[in-house]
Structures are given as structure tokens and as C-alpha cells.
Amino acid sequence: MRRLSVFNQVSIDGYFASPTGDIGWMHRGDDDPELRAFVAGNASGASVLVFGRKTYQMMASFWPTPLAAEQMPAVAEGMNAAPKLVFSRTLARADWRGTRIVRGDLVAEMRRLKREAGAPLVILGSGSLVGPLVAAGLVDELQVLVAPIVLGAGRTMFGGMDRPIALKLTSTRAFANGKLFNVYEPA
After folding, report:
1. What is the pTM of this model?
2. Which of 8, 75, 110, 183 could pair with 43 as two cysteines, CB 3.0-4.6 Å apart?
3. Are 63 and 79 contacting, i.e. CB atoms less than 8 angstroms apart?
């Protein structure tokens, strides 16, 4: 069975986006060489990237560009080479190389995808996907990069959950810029 992981960056108070959808705060401290090397290493993995429509469109508007290749060449190469799935009922077409649109029920489709042979699945951002998949018991690992900022309000990646889900911390790593990388698994 394929593994499904989530990678998301959140504020200390647990938001991945401000109430207006702004995520610019995530890039504070990106000049940390250790963090940059860590991100580049993660991008070189052989995973299938999984997105919701909003995150997909944001990523597709940046990673294939010359600016992305100039600013973060290893990450851009990995993002562009990886196979991608975008869950959407409204996206008409996907222009980012290697992308397939999945239109069916999120939970049922993810159950099916996990049963298939193939590379691990990794959700990047995509808060609309995380809550329902965690609630359905389909997420094997949550990788959370906590930024040293308080937003006060915004969007949580666990919206719509109707019960607590216990997790266990399996590893943590601190970076010089104050960001913490925590890895959790279902308890």
C-alpha cells in the first residue's frame, strides 16, 4: 500500500494562510542555508505530488517559470519533474507537465490511489484535502514546518473535522531562522 504524507507550513497558531489567503509570511527566513538545503533535498524525492485546485494553480504559476529555476533550481527541477495529481471538479485543464486531474470523491479516490502500486503520495499545502483525509484515516504522516509568526486568524489545514485525531511526534528539527520541522503519525 502506498503511503500518503502531508507537508504544510503553518504559523505558531496553526494557520497555513491568512484570512485573505496570503502566504507571503511563509517565506520569511527562506535565506537560511540549512533550510534551503533541507527543502532542496525533500524536492528530490520520487513522490507523486497531490494538490487541491487552489494550491495547484498557485504552484503551477510559479514552479515552471525561469524565476523559480533561478531562485531555487533544485526545488524547481523536482517540482516540474514529479508526477502531479490535482483534485478538482472545476479545473478545466492542467497545463503543468505531468499533471492529471482527479474529479471523483476525494476520500474514495485516495483510498483507490493508496491501494495502487507506485511512488508515495505527498500533499503539498492544499488545506481543503488534509482535513477530510486525516479524518478518514488515510494520512500516514504529517510533516509540519512551523514558522515563528502568529497570524491571529486564517485557514487551518484541518477545517471541517468533527472529532479530535490523536497524533504522535516521531521527529523534530529546529532551524536557525526559528522554524521547526515536526513529523507526526497517527497515534
Report:
1. 0.90
2. 75
3. yes
